[in-house]
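Listing S7. Sequence submitted for prediction.
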Amino acid sequence: MRNLYKTMLASVILLLSINSCKKGDLDLKPTNDVTASTVYATPAGYKQALVKLYATYGLTGPSGADGSDVGGLNSGFADFLRLFWMLQELTTDEAVCSWGDTGIPELDNSTWSLDNQFIRGLYSRSILQITFCNEFLRESTPEKLTSRNITGADAADVQRYRAEARFLRAYQYWVLLDAFGNPPFVTEKDEIGKNPPKQTTRAELFKYVESELTAIEGDLAEPRANEYGRADKGADWALLARLYLNAEVYTGTAKYTEAIKYASKVINSGYELKQNYKDLFLTDNNVNNKENILTINYDGVKGTNNGGTTYLINAAINADMNPASFGVPSGGWGGNRTRQNLPALFPDPNGNKDKRGSFFGAKAEVDDIATFTDGLRVTKFKNISSTGVTAPSLGGTYASLDFAIFRLAEQYLIYGEAVARGGSGGTAAQALIYVNQLRQRAYGDASGNVSLSALTKDFYLDERGRELYWEGHRRTDLVRYGKFTGSSYLWPYKGGTKSGTSVPEYRNLYPIPAADLIANPNLVQNKGY
């Protein structure tokens, strides 16, 4: 699919094969020492190890290998994006799933327990990826490089790789900060296996993520100057802007001025909106696309699993919807669709006016969660290019569509919302320009433009729903607006009743999984569970 992705696959295969060697095959040296000296012996080895850190976002490996079976889930469910998406979307007004797999009805009904397998899966996946980053950082210190005769330009390259590893670790700590609040905390400075990890607090973890992102800024590539799919300063600033937008939730102290500052840094760094909104979710979204800031790259032939964009496409369609028109002729799993709140944000559900709306079906209301045709289906993601060419797909099911973790449109909306919430360093007039750029793209002309008076705080929640739906933002947004729990805003089956009911405030955080509480005596459960 792409050169970086091919390198990902090669490095993962190399690392997994090394890990499978027997002690006797390595002259009786400790396996970990030989693994490190083999993998990190050359500058190319460091590049391959860096690629593994990115690969673990989009690959799960065969059953029992690195990156599979996390949190007790088999590899089909263990993909990071699938787990993250389920906890960010199925628990909100944007999505619901008809499947009866253990744990899914709990997410649909906002009634999850601390044994929920998907909550445990995301928790475990994030910690796994942090563990990989920590090991890379242990092996890339100046002392390690000197001992391996890696100097000059090669050492400078590894310094950049270290910054990227720290970014990827900070991103996963942001996931834990946002979803779990008070997770266990380890860095490369902690000895492996000596003592169970200590628990951090949400406020302390916020400071850590903030400090890491600001510390590595100078070592990252300039915006849009790195290889496709690798982090640069733009990704660093985008995560900082998102972090600061939610600072009041995380710490009790608002940082909207800082959100404006970093969103502006992204906006002024050469990124541009893709002309056609729908092209952002087609398989050539890596071509001539200055809107995407950082992506998870998928390959429907060489890196297949049932998560990622394969999941986003297949779970939203069934055989009656002509799967071939979505680029997955053998696919269509019939699970995920909207609750009626999402299409109600649009002037019409067919995308005739606001073309961001991509819905299918005749019934918007969800009367029965188990009935796939209750609720409009989302047709936003396709395994087809903007020119209508079906992307390679092993068995006609898997997707080669990349997923944007960050894109420019989110930064426009962060800027505007932070201004509306009282942040300084920006203006409502500039926010209006950004909002109307998004809406002119959506409508194809100025007919969708809004006036300055429309830019209330609540406007931005709805506009984020229209622009960013099903991209993994909704739970975080609803928590920030005080609407994820409580009774001020309801959706079908919130709290377990068809009309929706109040949900206790403690559910703004997910529980620390029961298995980890048993294994680690340093951990205390989040309040309410």
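Caption to Listing S7: primary sequence and predicted structure tokens for the chain studied. The longest strand covers residues 292-296. DSSP finds 18 helices and eight strands in the chain.
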